[in-house]
Design a protein that fits this description.
441 residues; alpha+beta; Beta Polymerase, domain 2; Hydrophobic Seed Protein; Hypothetical protein af1432; 4 domains; 24 helices
Length: 441
C-alpha cells in the first residue's frame, strides 16, 4: 500500500470527509497485485481538497470533481463522488452532479472496478458485488450492460482487456451487450483504440485477447485485415494447423515472454496472404510476395492507429523479412552477417522460431542462426568499416556513385573475409578506381 495515498485518505477523513481508495488499486490489492496508481474518491469538493493539499498540479478536471494532488514524490487523482449526466459523445458525460459513494460506484464500468477500500479502517466497501466477481474471476458490467457501453464505447475494449490480462471470463449479459454494440467502437479515437490493443496484445496470453476480439465482433471493426485472415487456406503440407487466422492465433499462444512488438509482428506477418493468394498450375496455394505486400499493409494499419514511427518501423521489418529465413542455407557470409546485424534481428529470429513451431515444425534454420549468434562476436557480425569515403576521394575520384560502389564492394569483401585490413582495403579501392577490378557480385 502506498503510504502517501493512505495519508491523503487519512487527512481527508480527519477533516470530516468520507474518503476511500477507488477502482483499479482496490481490485489489484484484492488480487495480490502491486497497484501502479492509487486513486482516491471522496465526499470533499475540489475546493476543499485544495485547502488540505495546496500542491495541486492539474485543475483541468475540476469541473468534473477531479484534481491531481502532488503528495510526497507521487501524484494522485482525487475525485469527488459523483453521478454522470448524459454521454452524448459516447465517451464523456455532458455534466456531473456530486453524489454519494454508492451512487459513484454505480456509475463505474465493471463490478471489479467499482470497489472502495478504506485504508485507515482497513475495510472494503462493495456496493456492486465486485468482491464476489473477483473471486469468481468474472468481468461484469455494473447495472445495465447496454447502458454502460452506450455511455462510453471504449468500455467495449476495456472489457476485453480485463478479461485477457486477468484471465477472467465475461459474464453472459455483458458479453451479449459487447457483441450488440461492437460497431459503435468506431466512434472512439484511433489513439484510444491503439492503447487498449497494446494492453491486450502485451498480456501473457495474447491469443485469448484475439479470441475475445474476434468472438465479440470487435476485431472486424478495429483490425479488419486481421479478421480477414479467417478462411484464407494454406498448403496443408506446410500448415497442418489450418488457415492463416489459426496459424496467427497459434503463434500468439507460443510467445514465451510478453512483448508488444513481437505480438504485433506476429499479428501482421501474414496479413498480405489474402490479397496475394493464388493457386498455381499444379493446384498448390501460393502467396507470392506476401511479405512485401504485408509490410505495406502493416505500416498503413499501424499508421491509421497512430502508432509511433519506431514501433511501425520495427513491425514492418518483422513482416518484410520473415520469409528471408528460408534462404539462410544458401546465403553468402556477407548477406548472412548483414541480416544478423539488423537492429530487429533478435525479434525476427524469435518470430521465425514461433512461425516454424506453429506450422511445419522444422527449426533447423533457427538452430543454425542461434548457434552462429552464440559463437560469433558482435564485431565479427558487424565489424567497423575498413575505409571510408574520404579515403576513396583522396585517390582522385570525384564524388558520386562510383565512390559508393567501391565502398560497397569493399564492405562485401570484408564481410566475406577476403579483405581484412585497412591496407588491403585501400589496395582494392585503388584497383577499382583505376578500373582494374570489378565490383564483387
Amino acid at each position: 500500500m502506498n503510504p502517501q495515498a493512505r495519508d491523503i485518505v487519512a487527512r481527508l477523513q480527519a477533516a470530516g470527509h468520507t474518503a476511500y481508495f477507488a477502482g483499479g488499486c482496490v481490485r489489484d490489492q484484492l488480487l495480490g497485485v502491486e497497484a501502479k496508481d492509487y486513486d482516491v474518491a471522496t465526499s470533499a469538493l475540489p475546493e476543499q481538497v485544495q485547502k488540505l493539499f495546496p500542491r495541486v498540479t492539474d485543475l483541468t478536471g475540476k469541473s468534473f470533481g477531479v484534481v491531481r494532488v502532488l503528495h510526497g514524490e507521487d501524484t494522485f487523482e482525487v475525485a469527488t463522488f459523483r453521478q454522470d449526466g448524459p454521454y452524448k459523445d459516447g465517451r464523456h458525460p455532458e455534466s456531473v452532479r456530486f453524489a454519494t459513494a454508492e451512487e459513484d460506484a454505480q456509475r463505474r464500468d465493471f463490478t471489479i472496478n467499482g470497489l472502495f477500500f478504506d485504508p485507515v479502517a482497513e475495510r472494503l466497501i462493495d456496493y456492486v458485488g465486485g468482491e464476489a466477481d473477483l473471486r469468481a474471476r468474472i468481468v461484469r458490467a455494473i447495472g445495465n450492460p447496454a447502458e454502460r457501453f452506450a455511455e462510453d464505447q471504449l468500455r467495449l475494449l476495456r472489457a476485453i482487456r480485463f478479461a485477457t490480462r486477468l484471465s477472467f471470463t465475461i459474464e453472459p449479459r455483458t458479453w451479449a451487450a459487447i457483441q450488440a454494440a461492437a460497431a459503435s467502437i468506431r466512434t472512439i479515437s484511433a489513439e484510444r483504440i491503439r492503447d487498449e490493443l497494446n494492453k491486450i496484445f502485451s498480456a501473457s496470453k495474447p491469443e485469448r485477447g484475439l479470441d475475445l476480439l474476434d468472438g465479440s465482433g470487435l476485431l472486424r471493426e478495429v483490425l479488419p485485415d486481421v479478421a480477414g485472415m479467417h478462411g484464407v487456406e494454406q498448403p496443408p503440407q506446410f500448415h497442418p494447423e489450418g488457415d492463416v487466422y489459426q496459424h496467427v492465433r497459434l503463434m500468439l499462444s507460443k510467445i514465451e515472454q510478453p512483448n508488444l512488438e513481437l505480438a504485433l509482428g506476429i499479428l501482421m506477418h501474414d496479413v498480405g496472404k489474402k490479397p496475394t493468394a493464388k493457386v498455381d498450375e499444379n493446384g498448390r496455394i501460393r502467396f507470392n510476395e506476401h511479405e512485401s505486400v504485408g509490410a505495406e499493409m502493416s505500416e498503413q494499419i499501424m499508421t491509421d492507429l497512430r502508432y509511433d514511427n519506431k514501433t511501425i518501423l520495427t513491425v514492418r521489418e518483422l513482416v518484410q523479412h520473415h520469409m528471408q529465413f528460408k534462404d539462410v542455407p544458401h546465403m553468402r557470409p556477407s548477406t548472412l552477417k548483414r541480416m544478423m546485424a539488423r537492429p530487429t534481428f533478435a525479434l525476427e529470429l524469435e518470430l521465425h522460431r514461433i512461425d516454424c513451431a506453429s506450422s511445419h515444425g522444422d527449426l533447423k534454420h533457427y538452430e543454425f542462426l542461434k548457434d552462429l549468434l552464440e559463437n560469433m562476436s558482435a564485431e565479427e557480425i558487424d565489424p567497423p568499416p575498413l575505409i571510408n569515403g574520404r579515403d576513396v576521394l583522396a585517390m582522385g575520384l570525384p564524388p558520386g556513385r562510383a565512390v559508393g560502389r567501391i565502398l560497397e564492394a569493399i564492405r562485401v569483401a570484408q564481410l566475406e573475409g577476403t579483405v581484412q585490413t585497412h591496407a588491403e582495403a585501400l589496395a582494392m579501392a585503388r584497383r577499382m578506381a583505376n578500373g582494374d577490378g570489378e565490383t564483387p557480385g
